[in-house]
Each structure stands twice: as C-alpha cells, then as structure tokens.
Amino acid sequence: MITFLFLGLCVLKVASSLTQFASIYPLDPALPIGASLTATCTVSSELGLEARTLYWTLNSKRLPSESYTVLNRTALTVSLQRLNGSRQQSGDNLVCHSADGHILAGSCVYVGMPPEKPVNLSCWSRNTKDLTCRWMPGGNGESFLRTKYTLKYKLRWYGHEKECEDYNLGEPHSCYIPRDLALFTPYEIWVEASNQLGAAGSDVTILDVLDVVTTDPPSDVQVSRVGELEDQLSVRWSTPPALKDFLFQAKYQIRYRVEDSSEWKVVDDVGNQTSCRLAGLKSGTVYFVQVRCNPVGIYGSKKAGIWSDWSNPTAASTPRSDRLGAGVCDPKAGEQNSTLRRELKQFFGWVRKHAYGCTGLSIKLYDQWRVWLQKSHKTRNQVLQGDKS
Amino acid sequence: MIDVHNGQKPIQSSLHNPDNRHIIRQTHNLSKLLLGHSQDLLKEYLKCQGDPFNQSDFRPSPSSRPDLPRPRPEMWHSLTDDERLQGNFTAHFLLSHHLRHTQEEQRELNPNATVLHALLETSLNRTCLLLANIKVVMDSMCVAPPEIDAPLPGNVTVFEQKVKGYWVCEGSRDWLERTERDFASLVDKLPNF
C-alpha cells in the first residue's frame, strides 16, 4: 500500500510539472462582439519545439498563418479581428498546437455583449403566503454569454435587501419566495442581470403583496338542470378553501361552451355569489362549465386581485325539447346524444339498485367522461363501450 | 471447501455465503449498467464543450489529467482478486470526487446543458452506490480498503477544466470496463449451488 501511495505521489508530481510546458496569454478573456484579440502561446524550451512550427485553432478551425507572428523562438502570437459572438456559453476554444496536431495549451474566449436591463417584471402571490415573480431579458435576450439573473427585494421603508433563492421553477426567468412576506406594507422588487461584460438592473417595481393575490379555483363546481326548463342550467360552487374566511368581496366569472364547440361564452357579472343560473341555452345540449375566482379587496386591499385558474370543466345537459324544430325530419346529433344520455341515466339508476358494489355509477360519471373525450380529441359519434363493472 | 483457480489465491470460504454471492452478482450487474451509462456521459460531455472536444480526433495532452490511476488492462492477469478489488475501490473513490468537481464546474460553464447535468448526477449517484457495494464485498472477503485522500478540485483555467472533465468521463468509462471484468471474473468463481 505504501508503494502504491508513493507511486501515486510521483504521478502527481509529473502531471503538475507538465502543465508548465506551454501556456497561453490571455487566459479566458471576455470581449465584446466585434473586438480584436491578440493571444500568445509560449512553449517551454524543454519541449524542444520551435514557435514557427506551432499553429492555432479556434473551435477546431485552423487559423490562417497570415495572422501569426513569431515573437521569438518559443512564442507565437495570433491576431483575431472582429470577433463574432461565442458559439457556446462555455466559451470558444482557442488552442495552440504542435505541428503534429497535439494540443499544447488552450484558452476559452468569451465574446458577447453586456446584458440589457430586464423588463416586464410581474409578481403574484398565492393566497398571500408566497410570491412568484417573472421577467423577460432585455433586448432580444441573446448576449452569447452566461447571464445570471438575481431577483432582489426589500421593504420600501425599512429593512435590508434580500435575494430570491429558488430559481428552479420549470420556466426560465422566474423566481419563488416561499415565506416570511409582510402584508400591508410595500416592497421594492427588481431584477439584476450580470455577465462577464457588465450588469444591468430592471426598473424597480413597488407592490404590496395584498395587491397581487391570486387564489385557487373554486372547489366543488356543480352544474344541474333547473327542473324541466330546457334553456337553463344552475351552477353552484364553493369559495376556494384557502381564503374562505377572507373573501368577502371576491368576484367570480363563469364560462361555458357547447360540447362540440371551442367558443366560450363568459358570464362576467356574477359578483360574489356562489351560485348562478345560465339562461338562453339550447335544449338537449351538453354544456361544459368552468368557474374562476378573483380575490378582490382581500384584507381591505383597494386593488383587484389576479384571477385564479379556471376550475376543471363540469358537464351537464339541458332537457330535450319535445317540440320538433320547423322542417327538421332527421334527428340531429345532439338529440341522439341526449336520448342516449337519458337511457344511460335510467340504466345507471337500475344498476345501483340491482348490482351490488356499483354505487359509484351515475350520470355525473358519464358527463365527466364526455369532458375527457373532448380533451382527447376523439370523434363525436364514438360508440359507447359500456361501463367497466 | 476451498477451490483453487489457475494459480490465483484460493477463493475465500466467504464466497460460499449466499449473501456475499448475491452482492457480488449485484455489483457485477451494477457495473454493467454504469458502463453503458458512462458511454453516454462521455459523448454528451464532449458535445457540450464545443470543438475540438467534439471532434473524433480529440486527444489532449495529459497535463490536465486528474489524480486517477489507470486501469492498465495489460497487468490484469498478474493481479490477485484482492488487488483488483483495492484498485476498483481506489478508482471509484477518486472518481466520486472528480465527478462532483466536474459537475460543479459544468454548472458554471454549461448551465443550460440539462441532459449533461442529468447524466452527471446519475453517474455520481451510481458511482457512490458502486463504491458502497465494492466495500461490502471487500469486507466479506476480509480485504482492507486502502487509505486515500479525497482529491481537491484545484485552481485551473476554464480550458483546463474542460480537459480535466474529459479525462474524468473517460476515466470513469475505462474503470467501469475494468470493474465489470473484475466482477465477471468473481462471479465465474462463485460455487455453483
């Protein structure tokens, strides 16, 4: 074992002395696009190589010998003009070779631009607990160099500057502050961009966390018929649980569409009730309905909050009209579906009574399946395969 | 019962222990898995550093070689099982540190290279697992692990970091070829019952 260690040490010593055999100056320079660069490769006399036999490559492309100058027996320079932006973020590889192609030394050249100031900084808080911010790089966003973005924030009237730490949000240029946020007092928030050629800060955004609150979509959205009324559906939902005790003035929005259409109709004037009746609908038609919430005036904030995501779609159908439409001889596709749906409902009722263990079956399940079908882009007239039981 | 194979050191009776046989087979399987993975790592690593690293004739000078002994396949037959195990332990111990240094360096040099970072993370984790397995086998065969100092990252230029990372990825692949061979040999020596 001692022999092994001794041999190991010897290898180390030899390896470190080899690093002195050739060197390049400057090492790892950072330059603006269009700049010029003169680099020097100096070889140790122990190598026994003449400078005039060496050559240079940039990203493995051989540089013309007209751009070389032999400084002395052991030093060769190369001049590069009007440099383009770096091909890779880890730097362009400028390499000094011996005549037989061996790599003697290398330097990574960074050519790019200083960052422009980040723009479009926006932030939102989920249920007043946290803050997520997003921004865009300034200009066209390409500086050819690795640019680091740091989101900073501080309480406007006291306190020291803090840095956001969690940048791994699955989308670039965003950061997440998970806790310890003050309410009822404004923050100053900004983003600093920096790379090897410079730095730039965004404009400062001033906000109170309470002014940028969003919440979860309303839970438990139920859509049902209004008796036998053919043109109406009733929508009911619950206040999002996280802010249930504080959403006195919350606003809601409903949107709905006919099953086979992509055009949504939006009901905007729902106010802060948790139920609404949709009218003017087509009879015997399946509708998909979604609801979302805006925590307006939370904790007395004067500003509108941020709309939540839409709830998962809930489906329901209006009763079929018994009156025939003028001039209609063949049943329309919607009517076929509605007949089918009625029969299914009767079937499920029978199953629940007579087949033990099938209590989960209901017309609601069928409606959810229709929603899923739409999402999968399957054709409308798919034959029903039957339930799984 | 003690078997003697080809003038090698007699197989220790510990190999008759079913648990030890199992860990030897598992370590062999693990080394095969890592070997395939190490080819992908080397290829992706070279791609991310830019030319000339990504060229088929890329051959750097050994000046940026990290502290890592060579597997030396030409010496393989003259080594005992104990020596082979110690060699593997030393190599993968050193590699577990070198891979971590390369990972940290690449986070700065190639921050957007998500495929490379995933491959490095997996390599690092599995190398540590492999090392733990090798230690268990050595303990069961009463082979003392060598004492080794953890290597330091060193203060090297960016180009030297890129070259060193190449040596680390290539060294990892070369040593996994050796580890697979060593454990295949041990598996062959296992009693058949």
Automatic annotation (TrEMBL), chain A:
Q: Which residues form the signal peptide?
A: 1-17
* Location of the region described as Disordered in the Swiss-Prot/TrEMBL record: 311-330
Please state where this protein is localized: Secreted
Q: Matching InterPro entries, A to Z?
A: FN3_dom, FN3_sf, Growth/epo_recpt_lig-bind, Ig-like_dom_sf, Ig-like_fold, IgC2-like_lig-bd, Type-I_Cytokine_Rcpt
Q: Which UniProt keywords apply?
A: Disulfide bond, Glycoprotein, Immunoglobulin domain, Phosphoprotein, Receptor, Repeat, Secreted, Signal
One cellular-component annotation, GO: external side of plasma membrane
State any GO BP term from the record: negative regulation of neuron apoptotic process
Span of domain Fibronectin type-III: 117-215, 217-321
Q: Which top-rank group of organisms is this from?
A: Eukaryota
Q: Which GO terms describe its molecular function?
A: cytokine binding; cytokine receptor activity
The record's comment on protein family reads: Belongs to the type I cytokine receptor family. Type 3 subfamily.
Report the protein name in the record. Cytokine receptor-like factor 1
TrEMBL record, chain B:
Q: Quote the Pfam families the UniProt record gives.
A: PRF
Task: Tell me the protein family, please.
Answer: Belongs to the IL-6 superfamily.
Q: Extract the GO molecular function terms from the UniProt entry.
A: cytokine activity
**Classification of source organism:** Eukaryota, Metazoa, Chordata, Craniata, Vertebrata
Quick check: keyword Secreted in the entry? Answer: yes
Give the location in the cell. Secreted
Main localization is secreted
Protein known as: Cardiotrophin-1-like isoform X1
Q: Does the keyword Cell division apply?
A: no
- Source organism of this protein record: Acipenser oxyrinchus oxyrinchus
Q: Where is the composition biased (Low complexity)?
A: 56-66
Segments of this protein annotated with the region Disordered: 53-75
Gene Ontology BP term (one): cell surface receptor signaling pathway
Which of UniProt's keywords are assigned here?
Cytokine, Secreted
Q: Which GO terms describe its cellular component?
A: extracellular space
